[in-house]
Design goal:
Blueprint (H helix, E strand, L loop, with lengths): L1 E2 L2 E2 L3 H17 L17 H10 L3 H32 L5 H18 L5 H14 L2 H27 L7 H15 L9 H19 L2 H18 L2 H9 L8 H23 L1 H17 L3 H10 L4 H8 L8 H13 L3 H9 L4 H22 L24 H42 L8 H8 L1 H6 L7 H14 L1 H14 L4 H11 L5 H14 L4 H29 L13 H13 L19
Antiparallel strand pairs: 1-2
Helix pairs in contact: 1-2, 3-4, 6-8, 7-25, 8-9, 8-17, 8-25, 9-17, 9-26, 10-11, 11-16, 11-18, 12-13, 13-15, 13-17, 14-24, 15-17, 15-25, 17-25, 19-21, 21-22, 21-23, 22-23, 23-25, 24-25
GO molecular function: nucleoside:sodium symporter activity
Membrane topology: Multi-pass membrane protein
Keywords: Cell membrane, Membrane, Transmembrane, Transmembrane helix, Transport
């Protein structure tokens, strides 16, 4: 028998050579080339024995191939039986267990049986492209776009006719669009179909989340579930830092441990392939509706769940071949969205979870629309097939290893947050002291960074729908987000909400304004990460960075405008933190009762906060 050109007298030796070829670097053994000579002169009897131990006997191989999946299937069957009993016992309270059943079914189909649903979908799409010629497809797209746009316009006129102040964010969106078009690199090359669908998707998600009771209930259920899930971090914090010692340092011992916990959970989701599935689905939707390139759609979808620093590793093989327009879109989507691990920290500050989660999703299509308006494509792209981009399933051997890898991976993120907080808080204190000194010389010692930002960004806050009485407070947050750090801005927002300085409409819109990674500090972080991933494009990164930061912030501001247009002042932001039963009853009541203010019907005490 021969393997790689080397002849062997028995199958066992050939298997050993194959395994040594695969694991030779780790085992430190010599690997023969086609002439039978060693490529690595480091023979080791211990290494060879380790390689022999890797060889599995036939029954072990069959056990691994059929036994483990069989165990998983048996467990899934038992859980399905449990779900049936749960539905019989209490149908209204079984929403969560049914959702978990769907997740487990997904894992069984895609993780165990390796079923690829994309083949039939792509096959149908290919058949459609063959049967329907491009001119006809273009006409169909134009007709659908016009119909959907007119339907949206009619809905908005009917919905906000009696509320004059909700017209203000419409003017704000118009100002942003005009500004982007005037400053565009090629105004005549703008693909308005892409821009229009980006805004339509943004409004569509806003209507589902902010105006449709069932959609709001689902998002509220998700937000409260995430908040409740993240609260279990306190158990680890109490054990490590002591109780009540960990409460004395809420950021270091309260917020940052949440990042560790959530990072471990995200790592498990990547190991199971769940995150990759959602990213592919979102990317496919964006590409189909907005007609963006595969790399733009993929990067934008990925940035909803991972940061731009992490995505630079995934995009590394393609960065050198991207056009400047594609590169600008990738950068803009990174600045307009927030990674999932950081969202956990923002929620811990006391910001409404459902709106933090929805803001990142709503800003994704807005980021592509803004990017293609500010920097239209003028060249042909090299990427035609979306399969060129793929997030690998976790290489960990089991879930426990995935948890450990995820927790350890958060160390770098936490270190980055800590050093930036220390540096920027210190710099901000120095700036405040300096401004106060110069102000006191003319009788105004109250002058500070927040004081200046409150006046500079007041008009910006107003055109996004913030009531004039809160514009100065929100102006401070906008300035701190852009100039200093969005982490500090969210910390201040949480404090304002808890203190009652910002409530209702202002709290909701402020959440959408701040939900982005578009600070000056982020420019340096992303420039370093992308330059390390692809040094040949360093000049392009530096040239596009400022424009992308501005575009990313405008995408967040346009999302805030959508929230300002659609948000009503009824007390729809109800924080229910008791148990899953309360969450299930909330969703059940909303689906059967049109009066959203009557959703708190549980007999157990709940905390109700009208923001």
């Amino acid at each position: 028998m021969a393997y790689s050109g080397v002849k062997y007298t028995n199958v066992q030796d050939a298997q050993e050579h194959r395994l040594i070829d695969m694991y030779g670097t780790e085992l430190g053994v010599s690997i023969p080339d086609q002439d039978g000579k060693d490529l690595k002169q480091v023979p080791s009897k211990e290494s060879n024995s380790a390689a022999r131990s890797i060889v599995e006997s036939p029954w072990k191989r069959r056990l691994r191939q059929y036994g483990v999946p069989g165990i998983y299937l048996a467990l899934f069957f038992l859980y399905t039986v449990y779900v049936v009993f749960s539905l019989v016992y209490d149908p209204a309270g079984a929403i969560f267990v049914c959702l978990l059943e769907a997740v487990l079914l997904f894992i069984v189909i895609f993780k165990i049986f390796k079923v690829d649903i994309w083949k039939p979908v792509l096959s149908l799409h290919s058949k459609f492209l063959v049967k329907v010629k491009r001119p006809l497809r273009t006409k169909i797209r134009i007709i659908v776009t016009v119909v959907v746009t007119l339907a949206l316009v009619v809905f908005l006129i009917w919905d906000i006719w009696s509320s004059v102040r909700r017209f203000i964010p419409i003017g704000g969106m118009a100002i942003f669009v005009i500004f982007l078009w005037i400053t565009s690199t090629s105004p005549k090359k703008v693909q308005w179909m892409t821009v229009t669908w980006g805004l339509l998707l943004q409004f569509g998600m806003g209507i589902v989340i902010l105006r449709w009771p069932v959609g709001y209930a689902a998002c509220k259920f998700l937000g409260d579930s995430v908040s409740q899930f993240l609260s279990y971090t306190d158990a680890g914090s109490k054990f490590v830092f002591g109780d009540p010692g960990y409460t004395l340092h809420p950021v270091a011992f309260g917020v940052l441990p949440v990042v560790i916990f959530f990072s471990a959970v995200v790592s498990v989701l990547y190991y199971l392939g769940i995150m990759q599935f959602f990213i592919r689905v979102i990317a496919a939707v964006l590409r189909f509706l907005m007609q963006t390139t595969p790399i733009e759609s993929f990067a934008t979808a990925a940035h909803i769940f991972i940061g731009q620093v992490e995505s630079s590793v995934v995009l590394k093989p393609f960065l050198n071949n991207l056009t400047n327009s594609e590169l600008h879109a990738v950068l803009t989507s990174g600045f307009a969205t927030v990674a999932g691990t950081v969202i956990a920290a923002y929620i811990e500050f006391g910001v409404p979870a459902e709106h933090v989660i929805s803001a990142s999703f709503m800003s994704a299509p807005a980021a592509l629309a803004v990017a293609k308006l500010a920097f239209p494509e003028t060249k042909s792209t090299d990427f035609k097939i979306s399969k060129e981009m793929e997030l690998e399933v976790g290489k960990e051997r089991n879930i426990m290893e995935a948890v450990s890898v995820g927790a350890m991976g958060a160390v770098k993120l936490i270190a980055n947050v800590v050093v930036n907080l220390v540096a920027f808080v210190a710099i901000l204190a120095f700036i405040d002291a300096t401004l106060s000194y110069f102000g006191s010389r003319v009788g105004h010692p109250e002058v500070s960074f927040d004081f200046l930002c409150s006046y500079i960004f007041m008009p910006l806050a107003f055109i996004m729908g913030i009531p004039w009485s809160n514009c100065r407070v929100v102006g401070k947050l906008i300035g701190k987000k852009i100039v200093i750090n969005e982490f500090l801005a969210f910390a201040d927002l949480g404090g304002y909400i808890k203190a009652g300085d910002i409530q209702g409409r202002s709290a909701v819109i402020s959440t959408y304004i701040l939900c982005g990674f578009g600070s000056i500090a982020a420019m340096g972080i992303n420039l370093g990460a992308l330059s390390a991933a692809e040094p040949r494009r360093r000049k392009d990164f530096a040239k596009l960075m400022l424009r992308a930061v501005v575009a990313g912030n405008i995408a967040c501001f346009m999302t805030a405008c959508v929230a300002g247009i659609l948000y009503q002042d009824e007390p729809v932001m109800i924080s229910i933190t008791n148990s899953t039963n309360d969450l299930n009853s909330t969703l059940q009541n909303l689906t059967t009762n049109s009066n959203i203010t009557d959703i708190v019907t549980s007999s157990t005490p709940v905390s109700v906060t009208v923001l």
